[in-house]
Design a protein that fits this description.
single chain, 449 residues, alpha/beta, 5-stranded mixed β-sheet, 17 helices, 42% helix, binds ligand F0G
Length: 449
């Protein structure tokens, strides 16, 4: 059957509605054309992020009720630790309130002036935490990753040659090699098992540990199962386990493949590093058996990590995102190919060829899509990274929350984009009226030209 059905039925519903065209106009003007400043009630379909926006299952809600809220040694913590050991094979783990808290603790300990941290592509909070410690974050993705039309099956791969020469020259300054699975910054693209194994070999030869940024580990494992030679007969769970077995540690935002609304993990093998990380956790997150979370959050996370590896779920998850990407390509809309796992990224310069980079085509498309159909998306380009960094592309990310929207919601999104594309020359460029130095995309204001 061609129809993608959600492998779940719906038990609790939340109404969404389309604000009138006049209201959408008023909302846009009130927010200075910045969708981060729009109240969620005025959004019909919210594709701003897949982080913390997933729907929990009946089993997760049941786990929330049975949670143990003890300050120390809660049963919920022990259950989470057992799950992490079973799925990820790490005995030492610290819960944190979200991914960037794990990053902050890790780079406080191993970052610092003069250090260099390579990654296939750093997510912005990872880069910010590395730089905050005084270290330098270096992206070493493969060249194919910067060409949106290149259909390389593993565009998240680390460029092994560049990593090798960095390690040969500077290994004493590299405290860790990171690898982000899947690579959010390069379009939700996966890393192959072969590339991870080769990265591990390089790390071993130079005596440097390998860490994963494993927010979307299950989606990455599914791509490996589907695309990598010889992996089709293995379970996603088994593949995920091998990915973790190759690593010495991991930072995880459970708001993605943990399918929870808040939570993170720091996984470590080294006993001494774990002891020091535990001290820092107590300093800023909370005691080591709750790390800034409630017992109910730990329960929901433990259950979420089990459910995310369900193959009916993963098949549907990746298939439904791919479906949106394929429909847009059929309509002539250039996206980052092949479609990513958690999101589709539209090439806004190709969508709005009448706008120059200075006229912010990505943000212009974000504004136009909200105006046209009440859909909220996010610019990943000149606004997010700043004109000074000169990002190679202006993209618009359609991030798909887990288990929240149905196929007809996605058909609506496709229809809206196809309609907008037909009258794309009417999309107006923008100029920045007001923007702070740091993280301008959250609070900048724009004006239509
Ligand atoms: N690493 C990656 C690859 C991420 O995508 C994110 C968050 C983080 C780390 C940080 O985790 O938000 O829990 O502190 N990405 C979200 C997004 C915000 O919209 O892509 P966090």
């Amino acid at each position: 059957m061609k129809t993608i059905i959600e492998p779940f039925r719906i038990k609790a519903v939340e109404p969404i509605r389309l604000a009138s065209p006049e209201k959408r106009e008023e909302v846009l003007q009130g927010a200075g054309c910045n969708l981060f400043k729009v109240a969620a009630e005025h959004v019909l379909i919210d594709l701003l992020t897949d982080s913390g926006t997933g729907a929990m299952s009946a089993q997760q809600w049941a786990a929330v009720m049975r949670a143990d809220e003890s300050y120390a040694g809660s049963t919920s913590f022990l259950r989470l630790r057992e799950t992490v050991e079973e799925i990820m094979g790490f005995e030492r783990m610290l819960p944190t309130h979200q991914g960037r808290a794990s990053e902050r603790i890790l780079f406080d300990l191993i970052g610092g002036d003069g250090r260099i941290v390579p990654n296939n592509a750093h997510f912005d909070t990872t880069r910010a935490n590395i730089e905050h410690s005084g270290a330098r974050a270096v992206d070493l993705g493969i060249p194919e990753a910067t060409d949106p039309t290149n259909r390389h099956p593993f565009k998240g791969n680390v460029d092994l040659e560049r990593l090798e020469s960095l390690l040969a020259a500077e290994s004493s300054r590299v405290p860790v090699v990171m690898c982000t699975v899947t690579s959010n910054t390069s379009g939700g693209q996966p890393v192959s098992l072969g590339n991870l194994r080769a990265t591990r070999d390089l790390c071993d030869r130079h005596g440097v540990p390998l860490f994963l940024d494993a927010c979307r580990f299950a989606e990455n494992a599914w791509f490996i199962k589907e695309r990598e030679a010889g992996q089709q007969e293995r379970s996603a769970r088994d593949i995920a386990r091998e990915m973790f077995d190759l690593a010495d540690g991991a930072t995880i935002s459970a708001k993605k493949d943990g399918i929870v609304n808040i939570g993170g993990l720091l996984l470590l093998r080294d006993e001494e590093l774990f002891r020091r990380a535990s001290e820092l956790t107590i300093l800023t997150e909370g005691y080591v058996t709750y790390g800034g979370l409630a017992g109910r959050d730990l329960e929901a996370m433990a259950q979420g990590f089990q459910e995310v590896l369900d193959e009916d779920y993963l098949r549907y998850r990746i298939r439904s995102t791919t479906y949106v990407g394929e429909k847009l390509l059929e309509a002539g809309i250039q996206i980052v190919e092949p479609p990513g796992g958690h999101a589709i990224y539209i090439d806004a310069c190709r969508f709005c060829p009448h706008l120059s980079r200075e006229q912010l085509p990505g943000q212009a498309l974000v504004v136009a899509l909200y105006r046209h159909a009440g859909i909220r998306t996010c610019e990943v380009g000149t606004v997010m990274f700043g004109a000074r960094q000169q990002p190679p592309l202006d993209l618009v990310r359609l991030a798909v929350p887990r288990r929240v929207y149905t196929q007809s919601h996605m058909d609506y999104v496709v229809e809206a984009l196809v309609e907008l594309y037909a009258e794309r020359e009417r999309i107006r460029g923008l100029r920045i009226v007001d923007a702070p130095e740091a993280l301008p995309h959250f609070s900048a204001s724009f004006e239509e030209i």
